[in-house]
Amino acid sequence: MRPSTPALAFATLSALVLTTLASPCAAQDDEFVTFDSARYLVGNLQQRLARERGETLVRPPRDRIQGYLTKPEGAGPFAAVVHLHGCGGLSAERRRAAERQFTGWGYVTLIVDSFTPRGIKETCSGRGPPAPREADAVGALEYLATLPFVDARRIALVGYSQGGNAALSIATASEAPLFEVPSGLSYKAAIAYYPSCGAAGDDLAIPTLILTGEYDDWARASECSRLLRRWNHTSAALWVTIFPEAYHDFDNPRATPYGTRHFGHWLRYNAEAAQAAAGQAREFLIKELYN
What we know:
alpha/beta; two-stranded antiparallel sheet
């Protein structure tokens, strides 16, 4: 699926053959869950200034957000996937499709709904404050790590569009931690579907797979090509696949094979690209979560 040296790949769709996994796993019904979004770390400078003013530094409470949890049959512990939706929010169709896919592959799946608890309908228009998607992703990681049937060492982050931007941000190496996280807890890998690749830095902390379309006019593939050129090869691995003649939302059947316009951008379902992307995602998760 991937060359030994990370490279920009135009997928040969007809050549993709999945031979590495056993038959799909049976999944239990999903469970509605709530958990806390992560808390940003208070910097030393903020603490010092508060002390100098004789003030007590009061931090706001953590946001309580929600999600949908599914698990394969059995006691585990299982590897897990956190799913981040795009700027249009979480639809029931996308939620069920993700549950069938990732839990069917044998992973505990937590699908995060960042918008409903905050009363947000969409953020595609750019109006209103954005939701703290990275904090929600880290909060989801913390929550999964508390579950006895989850292997906290094997959790991957998968984001779509705006959720993919958050996944790239989480995957980027940082000189200092941004969130309060238990020591040693981190994602092991990240997958970003049609993200804005400018969200990633040159240095990656975890292996990352980007899946995007050649004709995407919302999150342009050229940004991902530039990311690959500037990527620091001494950091964690980066793989980029650009699917020929594929548009934004290429894996979403609701975009239809004929296409539809959404907030001024063209969306179009591409069954071949969707199948090939799923195959690459599946193999990537096997390799990175079980190494």
